């Protein structure tokens, strides 16, 4: 009985992308650190509802300038590339799932800034898709 309830709960969470939704809401909360977190979360949920109704993608914390800042941290000497290990760790740290295990430059262990940027933006778009209704 308990095993069935756990399975039902897990299926429910997966179907409605609840874990991803909560993770995205928590990330947004920590990113902006509003004075009134409850009010802020209500506003975020209202924006998500509007997003769902209008068909526009949900909110995304990262834009090109944010990714450029991450690149600056990963490549302080501005070599024009990062290692595959840096690439993978950065995407994992950003909670991007389904990481491309063979991005352009992986065989040479040189992931260009442009490739990294594309992978982050695509990964974040996949994450923001958790705001969409199943």
Automatic annotation (TrEMBL):
Gene3D superfamilies: cAMP-dependent protein kinase regulatory subunit, dimerization-anchoring domain (1.20.890.10)
Name of this chain's protein: EFCAB10 C-terminal EF-hand domain-containing protein
Source organism: Monopterus albus (Swamp eel)
Signal sequence annotation: none
Residues annotated as domain EFCAB10 C-terminal EF-hand: 65-125
Highest taxon listed in the record's lineage: Eukaryota
Pfam families: EF_EFCAB10_C
Recorded coiled-coil stretches: none
């Amino acid at each position: 009985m308990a095993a069935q309830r756990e399975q039902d709960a897990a299926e429910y969470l997966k179907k409605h992308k609840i874990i991803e939704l909560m993770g995205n809401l928590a990330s947004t909360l920590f990113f902006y650190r509003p004075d009134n977190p409850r009010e802020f979360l209500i506003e975020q949920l209202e924006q998500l509802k509007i997003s769902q109704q209008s068909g526009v993608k949900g909110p995304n914390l990262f834009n090109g300038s944010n990714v450029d800042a991450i690149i600056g941290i990963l490549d302080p000497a501005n070599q024009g590339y990062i290692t595959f290990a840096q690439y993978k760790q950065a995407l994992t740290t950003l909670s991007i799932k389904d990481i491309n295990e063979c991005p352009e430059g992986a065989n040479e262990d040189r992931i260009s800034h442009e490739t990294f940027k594309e992978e982050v933006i695509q990964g974040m778009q996949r994450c923001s898709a958790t705001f969409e209704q199943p």
